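Teaching note: in complex prediction, the entire set of molecules is handled at once rather than each chain in isolation. The prompt given to students was simply: 'Predict the structure of this complex.' The entities are:
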Amino acid sequence: MIELYVLLGLMIAGAIIAIEVKNLLSAVVAVGIVGLGLSIIFLLLKAPDVALTQIVVEIAAVILLIRATLHRDIALKPCGSRPFGGFLAILFLGLAVLAGALTFSGGLNPFGSPLMTVSEFYPMNAVAGTGAVNVVSSVILDYRAYDTLGEATVLFTAVVGVLTVMRSKGKKKEEDLQGNNE
Amino acid sequence: MNAYMPYILCLILFCIGIYAVLSKRNIIKIILGVVIAEYAVNLFLILVAYKTGGRAAIFSATENIPPQSMVDPLPHALVLTSIVIGLATTAFMIALAIRLYGKYGTFDITRMRELRG
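The expected output is the structure of the full assembly:
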């Protein structure tokens, strides 16, 4: 699994570049490196459905981020750290590392031997129970279909939220009304 | 400890994202930190599901694939949901950032005076 370590190292390097580089457009492109490396790792870990979704989502996210950063002159402005940020960062990184150490020394199985007590059911019964040869799609569309319904609800709510936040028409109308009244 | 090495690299990636969220002043950098931390969590779940020498959880008509040789399909299905929800929240955060830029003319969160608590 040497490819896994190489790709993880590439992702960590891309993440550090994305956080530390001054140019915002370069930072967005570096996050694109992280996301596409993640999708190749998903392929290596035998999760083709997740890899396809990750590629599509990553491209959409990079396009949205470029929309936020391009066409403005702010891309080259320097961005520093905020006061007390270093202290907070050290505190929370310490907590994260502590939680990770507790997890690794406790109940987590070593890499390559998953705990299959619950999910053994799905490969055993997917074809007979749902008729789907792809076990992942049988889980998301049949065994846990309400989960996918909730996902669609969240997606709809986010789209409504984005449209509400980005809309500037209503505000203008209100100003026009005030102008007419005065 | 070598058996936990991918998990440790994944934790490092998560810590980079947390560091960006906590210490950066530019709101785009904070969004990038959230995105990186989210990628790390998704990657962790897929790493937990991997079985050494396992195969993708897809049956074949021409080849006999025993169910015991498949990787864990349940985290794959849940991460599929999580990725799409992550895109939705990222889009919402970017919309808020664009609106804040339109109102205050800057991405620097320390200069948005009216947001001070």
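Point out the following to students. The domain at 2-115 of chain B is CATH 1.10.287.3510 (Helix Hairpins). The radius of gyration of chain B is 20 Å.
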